[in-house]
Amino acid sequence: MPTATETIVKSAKRKRHDTDSNLPVGHKTKARKTEKDVSQRPNVEEEILLLEGEITQSRKNYNKITILQDYCKKYQTRSKTSITAAIALCRVFCRLMALGSMSQSREMADNEKIIAQWLRAQCGSYTDTLLGILHGADPGMQSTALTLLMRVQKERSDNLNELFHDHGQNEGLFSRIIASVTSLNSMELIREEFVEKYVQPYDDVRYYTLACLNNLLKEEKEDALDRLDVVVSLLALLESDTAEKQSMDNFYQKKVNAKLHNVNAHKKLAQELWMNVLSRTLSRSQRKTLLNMMTTHVVPWFTRMELLMDFLTDSFNAGGSLSLAALSGLFHLMQAKNLDYPQFYTKLYSLLTSEILHSKHRSRFFRLLDTFLSSTHLPAALVASFIKRLARLALGAPPSGIVVVIPWIYNLLRNHPSCTFMVHRRPEYSDFIEGEGMDDPFDMAETDPMETRAFDSSLWEIHTLQSHYHPNVATIAKIISEQFTKQAYNLEDFLDHSYSSMLSAELSKEIKKPPVVEYEIPKKIFFSNPDPAKDDSLLVRLWDFS
Amino acid sequence: MPPSQLKRLKSSLREQGITGQQKSKKHKKQANKNGSVRDTRIQRNAALEGIREQFNPFELRAPARASKHDFVTNKPTNGKAAKGALARPGVTKGFGEENRRQTLLKEIQRRKKVGGILDRRFGENDPKMTPEEKALERFVKEKQRGSKKNTLFDLEEAGDDEELTHFGQSLSFDKTDNLDDFQEGLSSEEESNRSDSSERPSKRRRLSIDVSENVVLDRNDEQPARPKTKKEVMSEVIAKSKLHKYERQQAKEDDDDLRAELDQGLPDLLAFMRGAPHQPEGQQAKSLPNGNMNPDRAAILDGKDRAQAEKQYDERLRQMTFDKRSKPTEPTLTEEEKLEIEAQRLQDLEQQRLFRMKGEPISDDEEQGQDQAPPDGPVDLNQEEQDSFGLGPGLLGRASTRQLEVEDEDDFVLEDDLVDLDSEPELTEDSSLDHLEDEIAKEEEKEFYQGLFTGHNAGVGEINENEKREFNTPLAGKADSLAYTYNCPQSHAEFLQITRDVPVDDHPTIVQRIRALYHPKLQAGNKAKLAVFSSVLVDHISYLANNSNNTTCASIEALIRHVHSLAKMFPEEVGRAFRGHLKSLIEDRSLEPTLGDLILFTAIGTTFPTSDHFHQVVTPAMLYIAFYLGQRVPQSLNEMAKGIYLGTLCLQYQRLSQRYVPELLNYTFNAMWALTSAHPGAITGFFPLRALSDSFRLGESSNSSPRKLRISDTAPTGNGSEESKEALKLALLDSLVSFCGNMADVWTGISAFTEIFEPVATVLRHLGSKLGAAKLGNPMGAKIHDTLHQIEDLLTKARIARRPLLLHNHRPLPIKTSIPKFEESFNPDKHYDPDRDRAEMNKLKAEHKKERKGALRELRKDANFIARESLREKKEKDAQYEKKFKRLVAEIQGEEGRESKIYVREKRMRKGRK
Predict the structure, then answer these.
(1) Given CA atoms A456, A460, A463, A469 in this order, what sign does their dihedral have?
(2) How far apart are CA B461 and CA B141, in angstroms?
(3) Hey, are the CB atoms on A471 and B614 less than 8 Å from each other?
(4) How far apart are CA B217 and CA B21, in angstroms?
(5) Using the beta-carbon criterion (under 8 Å), do A502 and B448 form an inter-chain contact?
(6) What is the mean pLDDT of residues A516-532?
(7) Is A399 within 8 Å of B623 when comparing Cβ atoms?
(8) Backbone CA torsion sign across A85, A87, A88, A90
(9) Share of chain B above pLDDT 90, in %
């Protein structure tokens, strides 16, 4: 994020560059241009500086503020002078505020009062201009405007007792800043800068930001979801460990309210804001983003975590990828707050759909699933259902998915030895089976994992995968039929594979031994074999190459 | 019971004549006169000393415990240990004392004395050496030091004085010559010298063993002899080897003479054999001893020195062991035998393929024979290589190589016979069907190679070293417009240059000519050139497929077969070329394979054994195909055709190994769904479905029978007419249905067959009811019906064959036992620690303890010695002082006495005067 001064320098550079690019056009034009430049620009800037100096020198020159204001207001057309003027004005106002010539008191003379009032009005219009810049100018100017606005706000709160917070009026300068920063979705850059430079480091700014956001959201109508997105994205920019701060003592202003030192006050405010966000009717994608930042950004702020329960439960019940996303938050609640979730495993079982092994959240899901099923006190029938269902799903999975499932099944079989009947079972009615064969007792359609009869089934699927086309997958599948001598496989080693990683692994190996070549050279490849004794290949039967 | 100590003392004293009768005075006087009294006294003292020693109870130390009976111990019953080692502590002590006196005492005396020069000159402190000897010794040392410096890695040098021995006897032939050689003398001398030089007076050598060694060394020092210098040794070796060489030459000449003589006699012998084939037995026997005997031996036996004869005989005998044994000649094989060998070979190849399929390691030498052609080894080409080099005999022509390479010729005869035999099936009944197929393939292979050269058979005979000239022989077909010689292209650009103006159909001809011209047997560099050319060909195949219409398939096929036969010669290069293409495919156009890529995948499938568990080229290719099938959602009919083409290849890859490819099944489902919207709810279970656009939906199908898919269908063809699109859709569906059937065929045996194909059957049923029920007699519907029927059959079979898994029929793991192992011959002194590390540790500890004890004892003894020495010194000093003191006192007293005498005398004199 470039700072204000940087951007100024940059824009200056850009200018210079522009003139440079004009150079080779011709001697005459160049001469004229430079003449113009010399005659105009420095003069304006000099004039601005001159005006600034005059204003600070004597009261008589206060009227020249209006000239500067005029310069400043022309930000649409002449950005450079406007910025210079804005900076000059900021300096002027800051000095005036520091001198106290803008503050009112009873013992002041009338004319003094009038001057102070006039100055305030000027300052108000100045900040209006700046807010205008912030709202609709190019990013470099926005950043400068933001810096200037925050500077003015600081001076005002320090010298004029004009606080950041205005108790829900939304009329104070800071509220307006926040409102304009969060007003447009496109102001991504300026938001980032704002968070990075003010909200993140200064505890009071953060507090008031949260308060303002809260007020803003309260004012918004229920269905205005744009602002919500912006707010969420702003909150997401906060570093995740902010909520764990032990003390709040880094402030932007000099004097602050005593309650700002209290960490719990911050947390309470944040919690209120989050609840405000979560209680709205959210779209699916919004829910998803919220769930994804749940454990990192939302939960730390909460002192009463049970407030989150409804939201998480609703999301989990919604099914599909949402429940997947809600899993981690829910797990956190179960762990930390002893949340009792009825039929959790049934729900979890229902998450094992045909997409799960293909989805991009596969590794995350498996990390969680591994945690959920790591208990050795789970009923064997339930574990067997999970094993069988995943084995079934592995039949249609990509190699990277199979590679996760098999060590996981191995670990479960290790932990629940009674489930090893699924890989080794002497049939009870062997005579009957000898004659009639058998069906798989497992019921794939059954939703209750205790009722699937997976325990009576066998893992034919894994046995099939032992002849998978990929040699490594086949080798991994063989661990199920080896002796279970290894304590457990570390699932992390198998989680992050994909087709491309496997392909590049295959192709990056150097050939050490010359590859074996088929000893028989086929007479025909694309065409039917003239010799009737030999069968045509499938390729020839299905495709026509002539 | 032995007599008491006292009695023994008395008796020994008496024996020595110390006690006993007093000698008479006369005897004494006489002895005195002779001066022998002193002698006797010395004698007596010596005898007394002897007795004292004898009776010292500490002179000999008996073992602490009496030796055990041999039936209670397993220690050796004889030898040093058995005797219990009668130690002589006095002697050992004496040695130690002496040693200390020479080292420690010197050190003590030198203590606090600064500077000094140690004389380390050789023999300087040796009083036994004469000055000449000393000078000689020093000279020798100096010379040796100079010569030994550069011999650290000199193998020849080391080889000179080392040789293999058995029981100390040399194993070389010229042992007798060596006997009088310098080596023996030198070795002992050198040894002594070495020990001499190593015998620097070490500071603390006090163990008695060392002392005894010193004694031995001293004895060696007494007869020093000048060792030979290196130069002398070398010259002698050279002389010797020259002599040997000369002797060998002589022997050879003798042999030649003998041979010539025998040759001269050969006509006589032949005449003899022809003339009188049946000679009487007796006569033959009579003539045997001299006739059949080696003339040398005869000469030897004629007389001469017996010993020499024996010696010569032994030598010959020994040499004979190194003679090459005669080998049985190759029998001429009958047709059946040849056939059997051929069948055996094919069986072996199949066996190896099965091994590779199961992923079992093939032993190295087997593999060597299998896939590595030894570089430039045309001498003993085995059958296999003959095949891979099958080009050879064809090239070198038939007539010209008849004498040169008979084996090649045989090969051809064999092949021709095979062709004949194939027409008579009853002869090949014993070999299995696939053998028959293999043989046919073999024959085809040969034909393929021969076909390469039919064009210019007449000319090839004249191709020899480096000769590249135009052939004048007329050629058949269109190929006559082509040139005969080409440079071997080393890059694809070069090859394109060559083939620029040539129609695609003639490319195989060009390739075959290049291969003929650069056959590895013709010139040394050809092999490398052809290797590069083989990878160029791979490039060219994909180039051709990408850049031309589909009429080129025939020539592409020929090129693929060329690549295949080159791959037999250069498996590594061809493999690398294919892998390079795969790599660029993944990097540049990961899910957009071109037609050329498809053709290359086809080529991989035929060139390499796709059934291998792991193969450097096939495995990545297969993985890519699955990647494509799994990840690519077809956007157009052409893409779907591409997918189906890859699916076909996939099925073909797995036709032997029957490995399971989930992606293919998934793709088939999705494609069928897209074409017919025949998705019956959530039946497909474990396969994720992807929504495809409606443009794939098959319209109301006509009764027309589906056409075959064309390779050109995979290329994007813009917007064809609606009709042709429908036809394509129908063709796609048709091949998908055949996929179902084929997949069911390939994966019949797998254990989850029911799980996999139940959904397939459902989908087909649904499809059948949708298409077939509406219009009976629809060829499509009929096909679906057939396939469904087939799958349902297989499903029933799979159901009957299904058993619960019994995967863990392992031997149970043994529980670790804690009962110690019983030792057959247990030795309490030995440690039987099963833990190696601990045993090692204990051993080290024990050693450390022992060493520590030894060192302590040595230190204690040193301290005692030092104390003793200092005491002795002090006593000496005291005695000296005492002596001096006494002398002084005596002197003073003497003086006093003299003075007092003088005084008394003077006193007396004065008295007397008075």
Answers:
(1) negative
(2) 73
(3) yes
(4) 49
(5) no
(6) 77
(7) yes
(8) positive
(9) 12
CB contact under 8 A, A399 and B756: no
Number of neighbouring beta carbons within 10 Å of residue B859: 10
Per-residue CA distances from B454 to A434, A489, B465, B478, B507 (Å): 61, 62, 21, 14, 16
The residues spanned by each domain of chain A are: 1-162, 187-341, 363-514
Identify whether the C-beta of residue A322 lies closer than 8 Å to the C-beta of residue A315.
yes
Question: Distance from CA of residue B205 to its chain's centroid?
Answer: 46
Q: Which residues pair with residue B91 across a beta bridge?
A: none
C-alpha–C-alpha distance, residues B769 and B678, integer Å: 10
Q: Which amino acid, one-letter code, is at A296?
A: T
Q: Is the pLDDT of residue B887 over 90?
A: yes
Burial degree of B567 (CB within 10 A; 0-12, 13-18, 19+) = buried
Q: Measure the CA–CA gap between B595 and B615, rounded to whole angstroms.
A: 24
**DSSP bridge pairs for A543:** B709
B303 phi-psi bin (left φ>0, alpha ψ -120 to 50, beta other): left
The predicted structure's pLDDT at residue B460? 37
Specify the 3-state DSSP secondary structure of B647: helix
d(CA B731, CA B222): 109
Max alpha carbon distance in chain A (Å)? 120
pTM of the model: 0.58
- Which amino acid is located at B677 in the chain? S
| B728 vs B902: which has the higher pLDDT | B902
Q: Cα separation of B284 and B279, whole Å? A: 7
List of long-range contacts for B374-382, beta carbons under 8 Å, 24+ apart: B375/B527, B376/B527, B378/B521, B381/B407
8 Å CB contact of B711 and A544: yes
Contact call for residues B663 and A468 (beta carbons, < 8 A):
no
Please give the Cα distance from B71 to B69 (Å, whole number): 5
Q: Which is nearest to A298 in space by CA: A212, A200, A232, A250?
A: A232
Angstrom distance (rounded) from CA A55 to CA A61: 5
A460 closest CB neighbour out of B654, B709, B752: B752
pLDDT digit string, tens, across residues B492-501: 888 888 887 7
Structure tokens that stand for A524 in this block: 């025909």
Beta carbons of B226 and B140 less than 8 angstroms apart: yes
- DSSP state string for A262-319: -HHHHHHHHHHHHHHHHTS---HHHHHHHHHTIIIIIGGG-SSGGGGHHHHHHHHHH-
Q: Which residue has the tokens 């700014």?
A: A205
- Identity of the residue in B557, B755, B806 whose CB atom sits nearest the CB atom of A395: B755
The token pair at B440 is 């046919």
CA distance B533 to B555: 17
- Which residue intervals of A137-248 are DSSP H helices? 139-159, 173-181, 188-194, 203-219, 225-237
Q: Say yes or no: ipTM exceeds 0.85.
A: no
| Beta carbons within 10 angstroms of residue A371's beta carbon | 13
Nearest residue to B538 (alpha-carbon basis) of B621, B444, B610, B482: B621
How far is A170 from A213, CA to CA, in rounded Å?
Answer: 10
Q: Going along A426-544, which residue ranges are E strands? A: 543-544
Mutation for B interface: A418, A458, A460, most B CBs within 10 A = A460
In the predicted model, what is the mean pLDDT of chain B?
Answer: 73
Q: How many helices (H) and strands (E) does chain A have?
A: 24, 1
Task: Number of A to B CB contacts under 8 A, please give it.
Answer: 268
Q: Take residue A381 and report the two structure tokens written for it.
A: 């029938």
Based on its alpha-carbon atoms, the radius of gyration of chain A, rounded to whole angstroms, reads 35
pLDDT in tens, B822-847: 888 888 777 787 788 898 999 999 99
Q: What sign results for the dihedral spanned by CA atoms B496, B499, B504, B507?
A: negative
